[in-house]
Every structure is written in structure tokens, then in C-alpha cells.
């Protein structure tokens, strides 16, 4: 299994995803601020992985904290929660993980625990969030593989793999499980401009797993579908609204429209921690704007001329009516999503 992020006794260690596939370099964060910076600068990215990183960053920050007394300790904890919450706005897993850490912290405070006990509690919870995410991905894989047709040629967008989670992946978890069942003949990985998660990360993961992989630019998905070259689409999600609208990497909406036009089933794979019942529909999901340089430049090379405006939304929203099903660790939700998504939580 790929090492995305790991808790060590005095550090949070993560593979630097900006450097893959050329270099496999591990970044050792020793403060909460370093973890927050790693999230913001995309050393680690992908909704579930961001949540795990934030939880571990909080645990690390409190372990390192020199403040005395429970009261000051709580003030520091809240400061670090705000720091983590300010890193990236769209992936709801970030806020889900922070809320979970807050809940566990509050329980400890109410139980009258010492600073040492509270720290141990936070470390334990961060590790639980990590381990549960791997288990959810594997469950999603099993559920999703069942709807992948035999001999499937599958298209995916961005990277929703082991690198985007604590391990195994959401969309790539489905692909991995389907490949293990002998159902996959080819995976097409959208390059995913401008950060190239598909070309760099998805292709790297799949090639390592010896799953047949072809990289295409986004603009090639249309002609490929028109030729009848795609049987199934599966992508991840950063936030799914209560009505089933899906925010995911920009370009996902285009793929969903193409899939609809060509009669290809378009599935989303995501854990319950990505489903935000408090957000009624996709119009309410905050969309992160990334720096212009990601579009104007490729590495150190300028592509667009000085003076050209740049629009760089990191995500888009795919309306629920384009989604054939939402694959979760509790099974597949189908339209109408207002009912089916809520039912998944009620089954808890
Ligand atoms: O900007 P990124 O790389 O964090 O965006 C990642 C995605 O859009 C993924 O598809 C999504 O987070 C799902 S990851 C399992």
C-alpha cells in the first residue's frame, strides 16, 4: 500500500505529492503550522487525505504545545483548529475531521482529563480517523466493483487514489477492486490541468499496480467516448451536498456531461465524511480559487503572456441528475439523493 501519510511519535510524515512521479520525497512536519502549510501548498491533497492530515496536525500541535493548564491548552487547541480550517475551503472532510477532533477534545475536558491525557486522546483519534479511512476505501471498492461491467474501459479524473486518502483510494479503490476481480481492460486517466493529478499521480499509482493505464488530456475524453471507447466513469468528490450535487476537481462536470451525452454511467465514489447534509445543494459549496501561476506557468516556464487574465477555480459542481450512483462504504446511493444519502447516515 502506498504511504500517503503516517503518524510518527514526534512528527507527521507525508510523501510530497508535488514531486511525484519524478521523485519520491518524504516531508517530515514537526509542527501544526508545517502540516497546515503542507495542506495549503498541496504537498498532501485529496479530500480524505486532507482530513487525516488536519487531524494529525492538531494532535502534533498539541503534543508540541508548551502551554500550561487545561484552560490555556483549550485556547491553543482552538487556535490550531482555526489554522487548519483556513487551509482549503472545498473539501468538507477537512471540517469533518476538525469537528471530530473538537468533539473528542470536549469529551476529555468534560471528563476532567489532564493535558497529557488530552494529548493522548487527540493522537488516538487522529490515528483512528486514518485507519477508518483505509477501511472505508476498501469497503467502497467492494461495493463499486459490483457495478463495473466486465472488460470495462474506465475513465477517471484527477486523483482519487491511495494518495488522496489514507490508502487504497475512493475512485481508484473501485478500480483496484474491479481490477482484482478481472473486470478492467483499460483505465483512462485524465491529465487534469493545471495541477496534473491525473497524469502524475493516478497514472503513477495504476502503473505501480500493473493496471493498464492510458493518459489523455481532458479534451480527448469527448472523442474517446464518441468512438465508444469508455464503458464506465468513476471519480471522487470533495463535497457532496444533501441533494446529491457533487463538487470535485474542475473538469469533472465536463466529463459528466459527456458521459450523459454518450450514455456512459457516471459514478462518484466517496466516504460518508465527504457528504455534507448541512449544505442543501451545490450552489452553496465554496469553490477554492487557486493561484494564477498554476495556469499561467508549467513548472518554471511561462505559458500565457503577461497581461492575460487567469481564472483558476480548483473545483466544479456536477448536478445530481448526471450522477448514476454515489458509491460509499455503506453501499451505493441512487436518486433521489435527498432520501438515499440521508438513509446512509440513519443506518449508522
Ligand atoms: O485539489 P486536489 O488535488 O485536492 O483535488 C482532489 C480531488 O478533486 C479529488 O478528486 C477528491 O478530493 C477526491 S479524493 C479521494
How many beta strands in the DSSP annotation? 16
For the record, the CATH class of the largest domain is Alpha Beta
State the order of secondary-structure elements, H for helix, E for strand: EEEHHHHHEHEHEHEEEHEEHEEEEEH
Q: What general form does the structure show?
A: globular
- Please, how many domains? 2
Task: Describe the SSE topology.
Elements: E1 5-8, E2 11-15, E3 26-29, H1 32-40, H2 47-64, H3 70-85, H4 92-110, H5 115-145, E4 152-156, H6 171-180, E5 184-190, H7 197-208, E6 213-216, H8 221-226, E7 232-235, E8 239-241, E9 246-249, H9 252-261, E10 266-269, E11 275-276, H10 293-296, E12 297-298, E13 301-302, E14 315-318, E15 325-328, E16 331-333, H11 337-346
Parallel strand pairs: 4-5, 4-7, 5-6, 7-10, 8-11, 10-15
Antiparallel strand pairs: 1-2, 2-3, 8-9, 9-14, 12-13, 15-16
This protein binds 5-S-methyl-1-O-phosphono-5-thio-D-ribulose.
Overall description:
The strands form four sheets. The protein has a seven-stranded mixed beta sheet with strand order 6-5-4-7-10-15-16. Helix 1 runs antiparallel to helix 2 and helix 2 (47-64) runs antiparallel to helix 5 (115-145). The longest helix has 31 residues, at 115-145. It is of the alpha/beta class and 348 residues long. It is built from eleven helices and 16 strands. It is globular and about 65 Å long. It folds into two domains: 5-138, Four Helix Bundle (Hemerythrin (Met), subunit A) (Up-down Bundle); 144-346, Rossmann fold, CATH 3.40.50. 5-S-methyl-1-O-phosphono-5-thio-D-ribulose binds at residues 45-48, 91, 158, 160, 164-165, 170, 197, 236-238, 248-249, 314.
Amino acid at each position: 500500500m502506498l504511504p500517503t501519510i503516517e503518524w510518527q511519535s514526534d512528527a507527521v510524515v507525508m510523501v510530497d505529492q508535488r514531486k511525484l512521479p519524478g521523485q519520491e520525497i518524504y516531508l517530515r512536519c514537526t509542527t501544526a503550522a508545517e502540516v497546515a502549510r503542507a495542506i495549503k501548498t498541496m504537498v498532501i491533497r485529496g479530500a480524505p487525505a486532507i482530513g487525516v492530515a488536519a487531524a494529525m496536525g492538531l494532535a502534533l500541535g498539541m503534543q508540541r504545545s508548551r502551554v500550561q493548564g487545561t484552560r490555556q491548552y483549550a485556547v491553543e487547541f482552538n487556535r490550531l483548529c482555526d489554522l487548519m480550517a483556513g487551509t482549503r475551503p472545498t473539501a468538507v472532510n477537512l471540517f469533518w475531521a476538525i469537528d471530530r477532533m473538537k468533539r473528542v477534545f470536549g469529551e476529555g475536558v468534560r471528563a476532567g482529563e489532564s493535558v497529557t491525557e488530552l494529548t493522548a486522546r487527540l493522537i488516538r483519534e487522529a490515528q483512528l480517523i486514518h485507519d477508518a479511512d483505509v477501511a472505508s476505501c476498501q469497503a467502497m471498492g467492494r461495493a463499486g466493483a459490483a457495478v463495473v461491467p466486465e472488460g470495462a474501459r474506465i475513465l477517471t479524473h484527477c486523483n482519487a487514489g491511495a494518495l488522496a486518502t489514507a490508502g487504497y483510494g475512493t475512485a481508484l479503490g473501485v478500480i483496484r477492486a474491479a481490477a482484482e476481480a478481472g473486470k478492467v481492460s483499460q483505465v483512462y486517466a485524465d491529465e487534469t490541468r493545471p495541477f496534473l493529478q491525473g497524469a502524475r499521480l493516478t497514472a503513477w499509482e495504476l502503473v505501480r499496480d500493473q493496471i493498464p493505464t492510458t493518459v489523455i488530456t481532458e479534451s480527448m475524453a469527448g472523442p474517446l467516448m464518441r468512438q465508444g471507447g469508455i464503458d464506465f466513469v468513476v471519480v471522487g468528490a470533495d463535497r457532496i451536498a444533501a441533494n446529491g450535487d457533487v463538487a470535485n476537481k474542475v473538469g469533472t462536470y465536463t466529463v459528466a456531461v459527456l458521459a450523459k451525452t454518450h450514455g456512459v454511467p457516471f459514478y462518484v465514489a466517496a466516504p460518508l465524511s465527504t457528504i455534507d447534509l448541512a449544505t442543501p445543494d451545490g450552489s452553496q459549496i465554496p469553490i477554492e480559487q487557486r493561484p494564477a501561476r498554476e495556469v499561467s506557468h508549467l513548472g518554471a516556464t511561462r505559458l500565457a503572456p503577461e497581461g492575460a487574465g487567469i481564472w483558476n477555480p480548483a473545483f466544479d459542481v456536477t448536478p445530481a441528475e448526471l450522477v448514476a450512483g454515489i458509491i460509499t462504504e455503506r453501499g451505493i446511493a441512487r436518486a433521489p439523493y435527498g432520501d438515499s444519502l440521508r438513509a446512509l447516515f440513519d443506518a449508522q
